Each structure stands twice: as structure tokens, then as C-alpha cells.
């Protein structure tokens, strides 16, 4: 019994540790890098965002002198027209950290008159989860799928025989994996999903042992 309790405790510690490792892969993006959130220096925020891969869990940090600028999150129409009268949210601390919680577009402007028109505006596109980043199935599921694929169906055999009697057959088309449209950031996302699978397997093993005892 002591050994079983020790195994349970070890699995729980492993699951917690891997969960913490997964969350640590989030990135903090400082808007404008060393220039910060400003109208000086002709900072091109559109170009800045085009070189980033924003994902759920990442943080966008706006740094600026308090009282000189602010950060308004707005709708797309207000972003396009630089309208500051109906913001979704207002930030003015000078060091505003905004955590990304969902995919899609988010729009930010400086609400000080004239600043948005001068280029102090930010369009953040948060990437959706790619199909290639989805967690792999558990080993048992893969084994079952492999066994099913290895057993030819009557339809397959009949088709093969028909092709053979016809003297020619059409080779099966193999679908090539889709290229990574998002560029950088695949390694971190793939690692995070592997961690999620391992955590799920550890929790499942812990639950099974609990039911047996």
C-alpha cells in the first residue's frame, strides 16, 4: 500500500511540474521593442506586428511615460478612424501588460488627440491553434487505429482485384503535410502540446490506480 501511495504522489508531482513547464512557454512582447509605445522615431507598429507570432497565453506590454500617452483597446472601426470616444478598455499606468486569452484580432490606439493619426496604433492578430499542433492520440488509440488500418476490408480487396484484372491501377494519392503558414513559433507550440499529452496520460494513470484501490 505504501508503494502504491508513493507512485500516486509521484504521478501527481509529475503532472503539476509538466503543467507549469507548459505555461512557462508563453512569451511577453514589448510593443515597439526598445522604442516602446511612442510617436517619436517613426516607429512602424504594423511592421513590428508582422514579425511576431502572437498566441493565446502571450502578453503584450506597452511601456510609455504616464500622462504622455495611454492605451485604448477599441473596435476595428474605431481603430481605422482613430476614434477614442468608445473604447473597450483604457490603460494608463505607463507599463500596461495585457494577457491574450483568445485568438482573433485586437486593436489598440493611443487616445491622446493626434497620436493615433501619427501612427500610434496597434493591430494584433492572435493565431488560432493549427491542426498540426493538436495533441497526438494516446498509444492505445494509435495501436487500435494501426490494427484497423492493417486489416484490409472486403471493398479494398475487391477493388485491388478489379485493378489487377484491368492490367493497370491508379496509385493512392498521398497528401503532403500543409506548410507552416505561421513561420516561427512551431517548436514552442509543439513542445507545449506534447507536455499536455503527457500530463493527460499521467492524470489518467492516477485515476485508474485510484479506482482499483
Automatic annotation (TrEMBL):
UniProt GO cellular component terms: plasma membrane
Alphabetical list of Gene3D superfamilies matching this protein: Cupredoxins - blue copper proteins
CDD domains in UniProt: Phytocyanin
InterPro entries linked to this entry: Cupredoxin (IPR008972), Phytocyanin-like (IPR039391), Phytocyanin_dom (IPR003245)
Compositionally biased region (Low complexity): 132-179
UniProt-annotated stretches for the region Disordered: 129-179
UniProt cross-references to PROSITE patterns, sorted A to Z: PHYTOCYANIN (PS51485)
Transmembrane segments: 194-212
Keywords noted in UniProt: Membrane, Signal, Transmembrane, Transmembrane helix
One MF term in the entry's GO annotations: electron transfer activity
Keyword match 4Fe-4S: no
Pfam families associated with the record: Cu_bind_like
Domain Phytocyanin, first and last residues per copy: 27-128
Keyword Metal-binding in annotation: no
Signal sequence region: 1-26
UniProt name for this protein: Phytocyanin domain-containing protein
Gene behind this protein: LOC100279743
Amino acid at each position: 500500500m505504501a508503494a502504491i501511495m508513493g507512485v500516486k504522489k509521484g504521478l501527481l508531482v509529475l503532472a503539476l511540474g509538466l503543467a507549469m513547464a507548459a505555461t512557462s512557454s508563453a512569451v511577453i512582447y514589448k510593443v515597439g521593442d526598445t522604442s516602446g509605445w511612442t510617436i517619436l522615431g517613426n516607429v512602424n507598429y504594423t511592421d513590428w506586428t508582422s514579425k511576431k507570432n502572437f498566441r493565446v497565453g502571450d502578453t503584450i506590454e506597452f511601456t510609455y511615460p504616464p500622462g504622455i500617452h495611454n492605451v485604448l483597446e477599441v473596435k476595428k472601426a474605431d481603430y481605422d478612424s482613430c476614434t477614442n470616444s468608445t473604447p473597450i478598455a483604457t490603460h494608463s499606468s505607463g507599463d500596461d501588460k495585457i494577457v491574450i486569452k483568445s485568438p482573433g484580432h485586437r486593436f489598440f490606439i493611443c487616445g491622446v488627440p493626434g497620436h493615433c493619426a501619427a501612427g500610434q496604433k496597434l493591430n494584433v492578430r492572435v493565431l488560432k491553434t493549427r491542426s498540426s499542433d493538436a495533441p497526438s492520440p494516446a498509444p492505445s488509440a494509435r495501436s487500435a487505429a494501426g490494427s484497423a488500418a492493417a486489416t484490409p476490408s472486403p471493398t479494398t480487396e475487391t477493388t485491388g482485384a478489379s485493378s489487377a484484372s484491368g492490367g493497370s491501377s491508379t496509385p493512392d494519392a498521398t497528401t503532403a503535410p500543409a506548410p507552416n503558414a505561421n513561420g516561427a513559433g512551431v517548436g514552442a507550440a509543439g513542445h507545449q502540446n506534447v507536455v499536455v499529452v503527457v500530463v493527460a496520460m499521467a492524470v489518467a494513470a492516477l485515476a485508474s490506480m485510484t479506482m482499483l484501490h
